[in-house]
Amino acid sequence: MKIGYKLAAEAYGPKDLVAQAVRAEQAGFDFVEISDHYHPWVDEQGHSPFAWTVLGAIAARTTTLGLATGVTCPTVRYHPAIIAQAAATLAVLSDGRFTLGVGSGERLNEHIVGFGFPESVEVRHEMLVEALEIIRMLWDGGYRSYQGKHFELASARVWDLPDRPPLIAVAAGGPRAARLAAEHGDGLFTTEPDPSLAEAYRSHGGSGPHYAEMPLSWAKDEQTAVTAAHKAARWSTGGWPVMAELPNPPSFDAASQTVTEDDMREAMTCGSDPSSYVSSAQTFVDAGADHLVMTNWGPDPEGFLEFYSSELDGKLRALSPS
């Protein structure tokens, strides 16, 4: 079991994120994962720095900590050739510690360049497959061209390549995306403890690591944790169809007006009882996860990192499927 820490780039500025990553390495985490957004989910979060700059700074400040995007959409806001270059550079700077997490994206971040965001999930998946073909082609070295249904590449070359290309973990919220991850990726990325996703991934030949985000809100007392979760993460209760489609933070604020604090208690572990965190983690392990990402929406990241180091690290690493 590998344990990661989610850098909530929607909730903290770039310097705070780098500091959290350094502290996460000291606390015993195996890797950090960062969201690659242009906007936060709701205005109250107040941040959204450029993930790739933050990751470069983290690479320079750490020595053993793995790095990952969670996740990048390489199809609209970015051309896949740009992500091929960015990921290769980061892999070189980090001495091979980088994993490229990719997905088909959210309208929230992708519509901003004015090219539109496809209405059809099938089209988004087609674009992601082509993007992965381009990225891998460029990582093979040399001048490359590509003519696809959605993308073109004209005599492009990534000059600085790592000794081994980064692993690509593909996000899946349903069986079709899990199959795509198996056929075109090196690993699976999920955000819920749904065994069917891992089953679909494995049944179509997927054999790589399974990254899974476990939501939580840490504070010394439960009510403080619940209140913080409601403020920062109420947008997450609408489910992926909603999250992928809304165009901006005010839309997410409007869509989550009826979410209550009790809803947040049900959606994630809140407070400081280690047994509650272990119980929640077990559901993700039972769903196939072997790379568990702690996604903390609590108000005190330093307090959570200390809590993880003293109360959770050994307990979580000891977990195995029931």
Automatic annotation (TrEMBL):
Going by the record, the broad EC class of this enzyme is: oxidoreductase
Q: Which UniProt keywords apply?
A: Oxidoreductase
One of the entry's Gene Ontology molecular-function terms is: oxidoreductase activity, acting on paired donors, with incorporation or reduction of molecular oxygen
Q: Write down the EC number.
A: 1.-.-.-
Looking up InterPro entries in the UniProt record yields: F420-G6PD/mer, F420_G6P_DH-rel, Luciferase-like_dom, Luciferase-like_sf
- Domain of life of the native organism: Bacteria
Give yes or no: UniProt keyword Iron-sulfur.
no
Q: Which PANTHER family match?
A: 5,10-METHYLENETETRAHYDROMETHANOPTERIN REDUCTASE, PTHR43244
Q: What is this protein called?
A: TIGR03557 family F420-dependent LLM class oxidoreductase
